[in-house]
Amino acid sequence: MKAKKIISVILTGIVAASMLAGCGSSSRSQTDNTESSSQNEASSSSASETADATEDSENTETTESTDTSENTETPTPAETDDSSETAVADDTESTGKTLVVYYSATGTTEGVAQTIADTTGGDLFEIQPVEPYTDDDLDWTNDDSRVSREHDDESLRDVDLVSTSVDNWDSYDTVFIGYPIWWGIAAWPVDGFVEANDFTGKAVIPFCTAASSGIGDSGNLLEEMVGTGNWLEGKRLDRGISEDEVKDWISDLGISSVEN
What we know:
Elements: H1 2-73, H2 77-91, E1 97-102, H3 108-120, E2 123-126, H4 146-152, E3 172-182, E4 185-186, H5 189-195, E5 203-209, H6 218-226, E6 230-231, E7 235-236, H7 243-252
């Protein structure tokens, strides 16, 4: 009986020792797991911070690179100003030209018209009757001559012309119109030309040639006939007029530039 009790006590002690050993192992295991978890969390946190720092660094570099690229492509103020000045310069270029229109019965008016064209750099346009006037036609002392009959009968003054159309008419902003004086007015072949054209926006300058007569109202009568254009004061010019005299006349008219 005593032996059984002794054995029972021994067994109880062994069991108790085993339990104590198991608890100790479990406690160490839990401690180890806790430390390992903490280390993992710390490592993860460190890795996360490193990643964030790397991303911030990459974003900063990308932004700076983009800004540098934009600044390089943007024109400088000096370049922009140069372009503007060029555009303005192109816009201010004048395209107006000068035309010298004339009818010459004997060549006198033609010579004066040529001098005006040479002086101004203008183009020439000759008014030509389909049926040219001969010397006999121009004999105003003969009551039966062509000009005498046309003078007496205005219905005969509608003279057919070779052409009244000027190439690039709209490109001319100054038009000289020259003619001989017949009975105190412009030679009537000129009438057909001025009636056939629109002088709107053009400065029109009449001039005449005559042995003794002045220009009189010939320019005003042509202006009334046409009804368009800015007609300036006309002038009688001699056959041998010089370029300097033409320049002085144009200057007196207040025309600053009539050259092509």
